[in-house]
Amino acid sequence: MSLIDATCHLSSLLAMSRPTPIVFVVDDDVSVRESLELLIRNQGWRPELFESAQSFLAYERSPLPSCLVLDVNLPDLNGLDLQRQIAGTSSLLPIVFVTGYGDIPMSVRAMKAGAAEFLTKPFDDEAMIRAIESALAKSRIALEKDAAKDVLRERFSSLSKREREVMALVVKGLMNKQVGGELDISEITVKAHRGRVMQKMQATTFVQLVNMAAELGIATRPTD
Question: What is the mean pLDDT of residues 98-124?
Fold first, then answer.
C-alpha cells in the first residue's frame, strides 16, 4: 500500500469513527421542515424534525455534536422561551434562530441569550449551511471540554478525603508547613499526600494542578 493510499485509508477510518452530527429543526411550517431536511441530509448531517417546542423537549438527546435550528414564532412555546428553558445546555446545543417576523430587538435578545445566529425567512441556503457549520463546531468544542471535565471529576473522586483537603489548601498557595498546621498533621505527611494528589490527578506541575482545581470549581489563588 502506497503512502497516499495509507493516508486515504486512515482518513476513511477516522471519518467512520466520528459520529454523524445532528441538526434539530423546530418549525411549525412543514414546507420549511422539508426544505431544511433535504439541505441537512445533503451536507451529510442527520436531521431531526419537530413541529413544536414541546415535542422537541420530549425528545431524549444524545451527547453528540448537534445544533438547533429554531423558529421564533411557534404555536405552543415560542423560540425565545424554549431558548431560556434549555439555557443550561446552550454551549452543547447552539441555536440558529429563523423567523419570518424578525426585528432588531428580537434578534438582540436572542443573541444576548447565546444564539449562534439569527436568520430571516426566506433564508439563503448557503447562509444556513455556514450558520449550521459554525454552530456544530461550537458544539464539538463544548463536548470536548465537557468530556475533559468528566475525566478530571473521575480523577478527583479517586482522592481520599484527606488528599482532597490537602489539594484544596495547596492550590490556594499554602506551603506544606502551613497545610500541616491547618490540618494538624506533619509536614512529611503533607508531602506524601501532595505527591499522591499529583499522581492521581496526573498533574506534572503545580500550575497544572491549580488549573485542574479551577476547572473543578475549587477555590485557588493565582500563581506567579
Answer: 76
